[in-house]
Predict the structure of CXXC-type domain-containing protein.
Amino acid sequence: MSRSHPDEGWVDWPVLGEGWKRKEVVRRSGSSIGQKDVYYMGSPIFCVFCWSYLEEIDESVIMCSKNTSIHIHEYTNLTVCACFCHPQWIPCGQCVGCHNTVNCGQCVSCCFLCLLLILKRRSCGECNACLCRKDCGTCDFCVDKPKFGGSNKKRQKCRLRQCQRQAMVKPHLFLMNSLVVSGHFDIVLVLNTSLLTFDRDTYISSTNIWEKLNSSHQKEATRINSNTRRGIPHGKCCLSENLYIMDTVVCIYFLLCRSLQITQIFSLADNQAGSGTDSENQLMKLLHSLRSSVLPILWYAIMVDGPQLQLIQCSKQSIMTDTMVLIDPGFYYKVTVQKQPLLPTHSLYDKYPGRLTTVTEVVNLLLGLEKYVVCQGLPPREHLFHKEPLILERASTCDFLVKRKLSMCTSCRALRGF
DNA sequence: GCCAACGTTGGC
DNA sequence: GCCAACGTTGGC
């Protein structure tokens, strides 16, 4: 990760809260050289994902990677950010969504809050115990109650009325540190890098999650629990351990769609079935099919203005993280890398149909994409002691995507003199 | 690690 | 303001 001088270029950014500052930095190294990063600096923020304070991270600078910027927006304002709907997932701090102060109850951030409530709740509201309204008057908790002549020391719910499915399990907080994703599975919980899978009909509770954990999972959950017990921040958890925050948001969508029958999160107001042309409706059908299908891991379909169907790789860990597939209403598609379209002559296009009309065709293309890596381009020139950002140079006919065993396309290679 | 005890808080 | 009971913690 490149850094500029820590004291330079900061501007006040009150949208994140009083005292917050923001600056933009162009990357000067790595394969994504020339890309712009946004950094924020401000007061400690409590992060519900990590159940700890984000502070003193990276020399007091909280990097606005796709991950932490979501933290910032979620838990300083607890409001909806339309940037969640943006294919790049990077809050700009300027758009309508970033300035919104009202929860819509439908977007990803709202649904995440809803999910937290679901995971935290102590009663399912459906079992016999939850439906029972009368205290037994004989259990130890009832006997403790003043109305039964007790001393009110225990202060607990009648044992017969305690939820059978959501009964208290010690490691509550670890749920906050677990992240819900969906990929090849119906429902997946991620505890750090370990996956726990559930059928879509499984009632998710702290009990059955706990039962699925192996001993090391349980140990880790207990450790997190222990660290958070008195609100002690556990260091750089956000950046070093929970690498799946970004993925979480996507997965919550799946989980909520399946459990709460929320069918749309992204704003599709201008593209509702019936309001557009037939071709737009067909594209919408493909979108719905893709969303109800199993896509290669953490590829996700969204609809944006145009109308245009976009497939994005949501995992920052993926080498395809800057790659998008764009499908127009005629089902013709193009692939872009770091917003640059592949040349129409790219060999990738020879291997797949010119139009992507079915889920199978889309999935095949995505699987095919994962066999490529991004061309490294030309090596940066020496810019030591030079303040201007380095811009990655490529051949004008750069392939952008090359086979994994190559690091550079033939055009860039030729330009380099190999 | 378990649990009695109790401070706290949301709902009425 | 009252009450039910949640969530935390100190003691064992």
